[in-house]
Amino acid sequence: MSRDVTNEVTWSQRERKWVRLFAVTVLGAMLVPVRQNWRPVEKRTDGFPFSYYPMFSKRRRQYANVVFAVGISADGSRRRLRHSLLGTGGLNQVRHQIYRVALTEERADDYVTALVPRLLANPSCDDLVRVEIIRGEFDLDECLLTHQVEAATETVLASADLGRVPAGTAELTAAAELVTAEELIPTSEAAGAAETPTATATATAEAPATAQGRASTSDLAGAAQ
Amino acid sequence: MIKLRAVATPAARLGLVRALVGGYTFYYLARRRKMLREVVRTDPELFTPVGPVRALSRPVPAPVADTLNDATLVSTALFTLGVGHRLIGPVHSALLGWTLSYRNSWSMIFHSDNSLVLHTLVLGVSRSADAVSADALATGRRPDPHPRYGWPLTLMNALSTSVYLLSGIAKVKGPSGASWVRGDSMRRQVAIDSVRKEVFGSPAPKMAYALYRQRALFTLFAAGSLVVELFAPVGLLNRKLGRLWAVSAFGMHWGIRVIMGIRFRYQMSGVSFASWFEVERVLDLVRRAR
Fold this sequence. Notes:
The structure holds two protein chains of two kinds.
Chain A: H1 13-31, E1 63-73, E2 78-80, H2 83-86, H3 91-104, H4 108-120, E3 128-139, H5 140-146, E4 153-161, H6 169-184, H7 187-193, H8 195-206, E5 211-212, H9 219-224
Antiparallel strand pairs in A: 1-2, 1-3, 3-4, 4-5
Helix pairs in contact in A: 3-4, 6-8
Chain B: H1 11-31, H2 33-39, H3 62-81, H4 85-103, H5 114-125, H6 134-139, H7 151-173, H8 184-199, H9 206-211, H10 215-230, H11 239-260, H12 265-268, H13 280-289
Helix pairs in contact in B: 1-3, 1-5, 3-4, 4-5, 5-7, 7-10
């Protein structure tokens, strides 16, 4: 470090210039995104690490839409699926992804199809036979004041059969199919036909599940219920 | 520029801030190593590059991303220790900027990382390892106070206040306008955030439910947060005001944690605000304690 004759700290002009340039550049880059606030909403873009911090500026009304996933077990009971079952990166990342794919890009079927293998691989989902992607409209006041977070209205955007047969269900399914078969074909042939639904159930459990259309239910899950 | 010119500052202050920011970063990244490995394997269709990652049109192969993440962890350790800072500082700044940008390129930007990346950039390119570092230990250097150790801290402070200023402007420039101060938007923000948490299997904080009826309280919170945000740059004018602002912002983040359950980890750790204080006094206390 250098000092001049008056014992004042000296600082080279070159270093000062560099510091000034660097500081102006970084601060300028930091402040430039403020312009986004004056652009039409649909044209605004956020960035990283330079942002205009739009998260608290959105209009919030009493009713809000949330897209989420629900698992349905063989007895018909439903439970919302935790974010870690749906994807990686935490709750907010998963929430953005499901909203983007299912609603913005209208590819809810793709989302649910991709979700099925994740659920089948997770032991905590062993009881589930179907998964649905739901758009729920929530009355925020009602939810917060009553401590009951239930959607006022729900729309099933897509659903998929997990192709899983809970214990005892295969036999019930087979019996139900047998009754149908007996109505259509002679008893001697029905005995052989009884094998068919069971085999179908097994095959379905092993085959990759396919996404169903909007608000549709799978045959297998429907039979189980 | 605001006092960037000639405020002689102890090298140890800047050095300790570097060590704190680096230490926090190491903890942050090490705990997320597994998560980052999973994130880089997300469906490529969800890839929405931000920051420097916008140079890519599609994700890099997962092993490459893993290597970069691990390289960032290594550079963080070296940066924290102050090893070969002239090279490691800029390299670490670049790697951290890349890694966190890549992590934020999957449909969700985590704005809480912004300050960390920018603070690291300033520390990386400045002489922040002239003290409290392996480099200083090796050379036995004990530099006198100098403005070159002060400007990075001032710039870090300016960047911090800019984040809050921009947040405040976004609020009053949003659809609510100046009426944001009434607190209704904030109250609804708390509500939607709580509902989302519950719907995705993470319980909302009890305080969100408990306070929801208290409209007047939300007016108070909204007014308080706008003051902290819009008047943040005032903290740059005066050292005492700056510290008062830093403490207020720190408290605001803890308030958000309690009411909304949102963790701004860098800010809540206090490391984000270390540049406002004479942190080197801690070193003196430690020396005296010996």
